[in-house]
Write a structure and sequence with these properties.
478 residues, Methylamine Dehydrogenase, Chain H, four-stranded antiparallel β-sheet, 4 helices, globular, Ub_ligase/GEF_domain, mainly beta
């Protein structure tokens, strides 16, 4: 079969190659967090959310900048700075002022005067970093907006906390009941609940705590007396991890499952101050991600280390990880309190859900492991994926990964004519033409598209739902 580029691209044939993005969401769907209008409780196959769901015309070259997953809600940032949210809304985490869940994406209207650059979802809250669309230079180019559980509003509200106004916000990360914001200067401020020391203040306390800068009044547990400049932070359920400018990892909060990466803890099952993970000494860490009770780190050379609770396979070390623990305990055979090498090389992106983990590698593939009851971790049909397993339903270059309580999301880009063709073919693939499209993909080196077709046919043979395409009629829901 001859591949006709004009036929594939139709009216969208470019003079110069444009960039198109795709969002794939799958897994648990009780609250509509996968963005589908159907009644399915779960969606085991990653499906691309069509542009029409976001109010765009069919076939539009939509672009996306960021995506995030909460426990049962999802948020995505479009290239025009618009923020869309969908899923559970019992604590106002969608930012529309209501507590009604929504099974399709809707623009957060209260942020239309802002150009949103990134988003983070906690269990029941959301935070976004944005810049005013009309800025005369007197306002910070990156400021923080928060809403949802414990954030004081069901609408987005501007939040400085302990930072001075116009502080440039570099990153924000939301946990189960606490939030961390990182400034461009490397300062961390934290707020929320602190019953396990997850705010890093040197003590525990009951009730909701206001924002305070961590290293303004405590020193990191390290030999060096100077304050540590932080470049990245990640919040787990009740623990926190951060990377310094030297590539060192610091953790604090609840450590009962080994999620802090220390041989022993200073305060029972908790670490109340940020403490360096000495097991990673001499290894430059570039990326960090926290799950419910586990933590993962990616080195500058692309190696992946994991530690913490692994009862659901989220460490990727197999069904029995106790062998690796420095404090062997047969009754806790799934704990791993010292970082273990899981993937030796080629890891590019990492994200952790509550009990599962996703990575992308340099060859463009996605792998996942951990709790898989809803298909959120891998293509496997097993309840647990104990080792890194492929997720082969997505085409395009992987730009962002996100994982929530029981669902996952991937943002991919098409930056070449070949990738645009792959997007078009992936949109049209079904059981009838899968073999033909797979043949085209194989002959043109489109590995991801070939794997998608292969998985679709395999899924059908195993008795799965063969309807890869959605028949539902969509409309402008902006």
């Amino acid at each position: 079969m001859k591949m006709d580029i004009d036929e594939l691209l139709g009216r969208n044939r470019p003079v110069s190659i444009p960039t198109k993005s795709a969002i794939y969401v799958w897994g648990y769907n009780q609250s509509g967090q996968t963005g589908r209008n159907g009644k399915e409780r779960q969606l085991r196959i990653p499906k691309q959310l069509k542009p029409e769901l976001f109010g765009c015309t069919a076939g539009a070259n939509s672009r996306w900048l960021d995506i995030a997953c909460g426990r049962e809600h999802t948020a995505a940032v479009a290239s025009d700075g618009s923020l869309f949210t969908w899923g559970a809304n019992d604590f106002g985490q969608l930012g529309d002022g209501t507590e009604e869940r929504r099974k399709h994406p809707k623009k957060v209207k209260q942020l239309q005067t802002e150009f949103v650059k990134s988003v983070s979802c906690g269990a029941h809250c959301t935070a976004a970093i944005a810049e005013p669309r009309e800025n005369d230079g007197s306002v910070s180019t990156r400021r923080l907006w928060i809403w949802g559980q414990n954030q004081g509003s069901n609408f987005p509200r501007l939040f400085w906390g302990a930072f001075t106004p116009n502080t440039i916000i570099r990153q924000v990360s939301c946990g189960a009941v606490h939030v961390m914001a990182l400034s461009e200067d490397g300062l961390l401020q934290a707020w929320g609940y602190n019953e396990y020391g997850q705010l890093g203040r040197g003590f525990t306390c009951e009730g909701l705590q206001g924002a305070r800068i961590i290293n303004a009044y405590v020193k990191f547990l390290d030999d060096a007396p100077e304050l540590v400049k932080i470049t990245q932070v990640s919040c787990g359920e009740y623990h926190t991890a951060a990377i310094s400018e030297k590539g060192e990892v610091y953790t604090w909060g609840l450590g009962n499952m080994g999620q802090l990466g220390h041989c022993s803890l200073q305060s029972g099952e908790k670490e109340l101050l940020p403490r360096r993970v000495v097991a990673l000494e001499g290894i430059f860490i570039k990326d960090i991600a926290c799950g419910g009770v586990h933590t993962c780190a990616v080195t500058q050379k692309g190696a992946l280390y994991a530690w913490g609770g692994g009862r659901s396979g989220q460490l990727g070390l197999g069904p029995d990880t106790g062998f690796f623990s420095c404090n062997a305990n047969e009754s806790e055979s799934f704990l791993r309190n010292i970082p273990a090498l899981v993937v030796p090389t080629s890891v590019q992106l990492i994200t952790c859900g509550h009990s599962h983990t996703l990575i992308s590698t340099r060859d463009g593939r996605i792998h996942g492991w951990g709790y898989n009851s809803y298909g959120q971790a891998s293509n496997e049909k097993s309840t647990y994926a104990w080792y890194p397993s492929p997720v082969d339903w997505c085409v395009g270059e992987v730009r962002k990964l996100a994982a929530g309580g029981g669902h996952s999301a991937v943002l991919t880009d098409a930056c070449s004519l070949k990738e645009l063709c792959e997007f078009r073919l992936a949109d049209s693939v079904n059981l009838k033409n899968a073999s033909e499209i797979e043949d085209i993909a194989s002959r043109t080196g489109s590995d991801a598209l070939a794997r998608l077709c292969e998985r679709l046919r395999q899924h059908a043979l195993e008795g799965g739902d063969c309807e890869y395409e959605d028949d539902e009629t969509t409309s402008n829901r902006k």
